[in-house]
Amino acid sequence: MTPSKTLDGNSHDSGPLFFRDRDWHPAAYTPGYKTSMTRAPHRALVALSSTLSEQTGPAFGHDMIGERDNNLIVNFTGQPAIGERIIMHGRVLDENGRGIPDVLVEIWQANAGGRYRHKKDGYLAPLDPNFGGCGRTISGPDGSYEFLTVRPGAYPWPNHVNNWRPMHIHVSVFGTGFGQRLITQMYFEGDPLIAKCPIVNTIGQQKAIEALVAPLDMNRAIPMDCLAYRFDIVLRGRRQSFFENRKEGM
């Protein structure tokens, strides 16, 4: 039996060791994703342990969460954003499927037209004056979280001649300190651009890609209001979500 420490800071008897599948993550050098050609390391990687300050702080003050922080439809100006209203919900889980409470979950995304509120985004789609594109929340006692937002649009990007990013929402989770941060992306079930995306195609295993695709959840949809998509975030183990910045999970 192997004890482990989860995001709640407690040690748990987690059962047999979960051996990591190294093929779950893409190679650093993937020419189809043009940026990797300049970012990929040319020497063997060196594993560095977390420092004490990274493990213990600084911590996020949970009392800083505002009432509308997880409602991206109105949290920018108070007026409703334009686009298809959706609920994004799920749970933050450990490798054994146990919910992890008190995790800071942040999201950011393009608007319904596929444009970010960022000075370097030059896409032709218009900005929505009532959509900021970011939100945050704290996971509940069972690890659950929820956001109300609009479905982001696809957009072109200068990777090769005619590449488009699928509709997606960026997701960040924090542990007990800011040094414990994982970043991933959520895609939408049924989007044909997922299979054509050079970034997605750096992931070698189809099961790893499927873990990033949120299925439609009609049980949580609100009639005459919004659809819902479920996206569980698994921190470690064989079913771990693919994280962009830390392959080993938390």
UniProtKB/TrEMBL annotation:
GO BP, sorted A to Z: 3,4-dihydroxybenzoate catabolic process
GO MF annotation list: ferric iron binding; protocatechuate 3,4-dioxygenase activity
EC number: 1.13.11.3
UniProt-listed SUPFAM superfamilies: Aromatic compound dioxygenase
Pfam families with a match to the protein in the record: Dioxygenase_C (PF00775), PCDO_beta_N (PF12391)
Gene3D superfamilies (UniProt xref): Aromatic compound dioxygenase (2.60.130.10)
Record key words, sorted: Dioxygenase, Oxidoreductase
Residue ranges of every copy of the Intradiol ring-cleavage dioxygenases domain listed in the record: 88-116
Coiled-coil portions: none
InterPro entries in the cross-refs: Intradiol_dOase_C, Intradiol_dOase_core, Intradiol_RC_Dioxygenase, PCDO_beta_N, Protocat_dOase_b
Taxonomy, superkingdom: Bacteria
Family in the record: Belongs to the intradiol ring-cleavage dioxygenase family.
Protein name as annotated: Protocatechuate 3,4-dioxygenase subunit beta
Organism: Paracoccus siganidrum
Gene transcribed to yield this protein: pcaH
